[in-house]
Amino acid sequence: MTIFHFISAFFSDSAHWHGYDGIPTRLVEHIEYSLIALGIAGAVGLPVGLLTGHYGRGGNALALLATAARALPSFGLLVLLFVLMGLSKLPVLIPLVVLAIPPILVTTYEAVRTVDPAPVDAARGMGMHQAKVLFQVELPVALPLILSGLRSAAIQVVSTATIAAYVSFGGVGRYIVDGLYQRNYEKVVGGATLVAALALATLGLFWLMSRFAVSRGVRGVRRP
Amino acid sequence: MNGFFDMPSDLQHSYVGLIGLHLQEALLPVAIGLVLALPVAQLCVRFKWLYPPVLWATTVLYAIPSLAFFVVLIDYTGQTETTVVIPLALYSLVVLVPAIVDGVRSVSPETNAAAVAMGIGPVRRYLQVELPIAVPAIFAGLRVATVSSISLVSVGALIGNQGALGNLLADANLYHRPILAVSSVVTTAVLAILADAALVLIRMLLTPWLPKSARRARRGAGGPAGPDANGDAGDKAGGLPAGGTLGDGTTDVRPTAGSAL
Amino acid sequence: MISIEAVSKRYPDGTVAVDGLSLEIPDRSITVLVGPSGCGKTTTLRMINRMIELSGGRILIDGEDIQHKPVNALRRSMGYVIQNAGLFQHRTIVDNIGTVPRMLGWSKAKARERSMELMERVGLDTSMAKRYPYQLSGGQQQRVGVARALAADPPVLLMDEPFSAVDPVVRRGLQEELLRIQSELGKTIVFVTHDIDEAIRVGDMIAVLRTGGKLAQYAPPDELLSRPADAAVEDFLGADRGIRGLSFFGTEQLPLERNGIVAVDATAAQVAERAADLPQLLVVDVDGRPLGWADAARLRASGARNDTAGLLASGQTFRLGEDSLRVALDCAVLSPTGWAAAVDGEGRAVGVVSQEAIARAIREAHGRRGTAPVDVGAAR
């Protein structure tokens, strides 16, 4: 019960809705950083993933990259960069981008590579050129999996941006870190609730995207 | 390397001691997760209607950042190791359930029919047929859970020095000694890679029956495992898809905890 | 004897898979259930080992109702072979075959010995014992499947489309292997297939089922081919059932021209002793093996004179008494002269026979068997 008490106390306090430490400001900060990181990661990961997947090359390199990226502790990387580079946007953005690229890249590669070869063969047989095969045959079928890679990256970015409050970054994680420091448990729990809500909203957003962007014929085959 | 292995005294542990603590905080949750996941997965296999809601719940749980979990638990379990272990066990559970379900479901209908026709009862069938055949998928899940867990323990530093090697990060910040952060990141990454390699090795020893070339061919485990036991939520270990292989030179990096290695 | 008595299978959604089916399945023979998809053949098979519980009627094995037996004991008393074999991919070949014996409490050594023996019986090299299923071809896996089903020496073998997933050449080999094993072991085999040719090749009795799970006809293959119960069965049998039916008639009774053969070194005088009314003669080498056909008039004029250059190819030959009338007719049709050459077990020519003579023999054979082709519409 106490948790809910804290939550309601946090959100009903009007002081939490205004100013540089208000919920709207913190949310905007959080979303802004997440979007920038995701945008950069997507701009790198999607084309590389599509091309490597289409030509079926580079899988070994990607597997290595995936293993290495999984092993790299994101929180550690964040603190390390902050200690080395000091207070600026870069120590936060770099780990976020570094962490978001592998899921996008690897999933996109795998999504395109595992498309049923029969329709691809048929398309080539009809005289479609490479770009058309990729965008009209492979991409629509691979889309659910590609979106799931993007979603993984997005959720990861949102979560890591939370921890980034520890290195003086704004965003919603600020409440948790400050609350812990000030021994203000109401603030901590309120922050945690916001963070969880943000993660779930991201999940929901991608769910909606896959509902609308994925062909009905494909949805039956692979779960988005 | 000055300072790489010299731990500040406030950590109350030597370098090796921190590694031991880190492994304990990381692996205990995976073990707990596995013990809980087996029966849950079996329920999902037996009662098919149960699986979609369970999958949905795992996706949601996995999306919630670890820090949020940690701080909510502080009220109940204090700033202790337990506060770190509980969420990590939950994440492991959430990765392992779809992995095991997909693994057990990857047993071909013919094999199942043959087992039933030979008069092999359900318990024996589970232990001698389904579970062994699910081993590759279970290990794919274990690898994701283990690597995630090792990485996530560090976040425990935020809730009062419960992060083992992660506590070095706090000290690096506090005393401005970057070498401590380097030590933390490198050691954690090496631990994760070694644990991953160990799991791959054990899996290979357990599955001499797996075709060497079929790791790629077996899209088996039934497509994407769940909306998202996709290996990674957020801060979780730079969580990447399961199935990325280390050392066997294959390229199977399907983003599903359940995919074959 | 497996007695299927008025058995039905109805599903909760109202689908009827099997509808009042009655069959007497004789011991020590192969009974084939055949029909289009959805005819309930697999359902029927799976009701025998209670993989599917029946919703009406009963099944008796040697007079005992299968419902009264413990289900796992019942299943262990029957071998079960399925499409794609369904091997345990995580166990070696020898362990796969030994599964049921081990469950029955055999010692490891005894189960292993039995596995090895069975590998040989189904035509597998025992050097494969330690391999895993993925290291075997589809045909080999299917052999392991058969060996596994035979492991505990069950009196009954249930086979559900066992050879459907392998290519035609391998399938033919497996069918022959099955017949050979059956001739050695004499199991009671129930065999499900959708392939009527396979049914005719392996079946001692064939039950043709029609969609909706009703029995259309239950007869031995030759009778099925010569007297299909109705137009639907006839249609299912395919276009050339008359020719295929000849597979069940032997060649012992063929009126051979034993005088139609001359040695390659025969003189004109020796040729003259041969049947005078034959248009051509079969020239054979010194061992009696066919070399080719030669014009009779020319030979009578000059002798064979070891001249093999001018011969017409002897073509395919049939083994007298071993091959069927179908093979003999096929030889005659393919022969450049319209005559077929019969050989003995060593490949030595024993006589020749014309298409016309074979046609007469076919009519006589039908008459003896009482299977004379009748007009389907008038018959039933």
Descriptive report:
The complex is a heterotrimer of chains A (224), B (261) and C (380). Chain A has 224 residues and is an all-alpha fold. Chain A has one domain (2-6, 30-219): Orthogonal Bundle (MetI-like fold), CATH 1.10.3720.10. Chain A has helices spanning 2-12, 23-55, 59-71, 74-85, 90-113, 117-125, 130-163, 173-182, 185-213, 216-219. The longest helix of chain A is centred in the middle third of the chain and has 34 residues, at 130-163. The mean pLDDT of chain A is 84. Chain B is mainly alpha-helical. Chain B has one domain (10-217): MetI-like (MetI-like fold), CATH 1.10.3720.10. Chain B is built from nine helices and no strands. Chain B has helices at 15-46, 51-63, 66-77, 81-105, 109-117, 122-152, 167-175, 178-206, 214-217. The longest helix of chain B is centred in the N-terminal third of the chain and has 32 residues, at 15-46. In chain C, 42% of the residues are buried. In chain C, helix 5 (108-121) crosses helix 6. Chain C has helices spanning 41-48, 71-76, 93-97, 99-103, 108-121, 138-150, 168-185, 196-202, 221-226, 231-237, 241-245, 268-272, 296-302, 325-334, 355-369, 376-379, and strands spanning 2-10, 16-25, 30-34, 56-61, 64-65, 78-82, 156-160, 188-193, 205-210, 214-219, 261-263, 280-284, 290-295, 312-313, 317-319, 339-343, 349-354. Chain C contains 16 helices and 17 strands. Chain C folds into two domains: 2-248, P-loop containing nucleotide triphosphate hydrolases (Rossmann fold, 3-Layer(aba) Sandwich); 261-364, CBS-domain (Roll), CATH 3.10.580. Chain C has a six-stranded mixed sheet, sandwiched between helices. Chain C has a four-stranded antiparallel sheet with strand order 2-1-4-5, covered by helices on one side. Chain C has a four-stranded mixed sheet with strand order 11-12-13-14. The model of chain C is unreliable at 376-380 (pLDDT under 50). Chain C is of the alpha/beta class and 380 residues long. Chains in contact: A-B, B-C. Chains A and B meet through helix 3, helix 4, helix 5, helix 7 and helix 8 of A and helix 2, helix 3, helix 6, helix 7 and helix 8 of B.
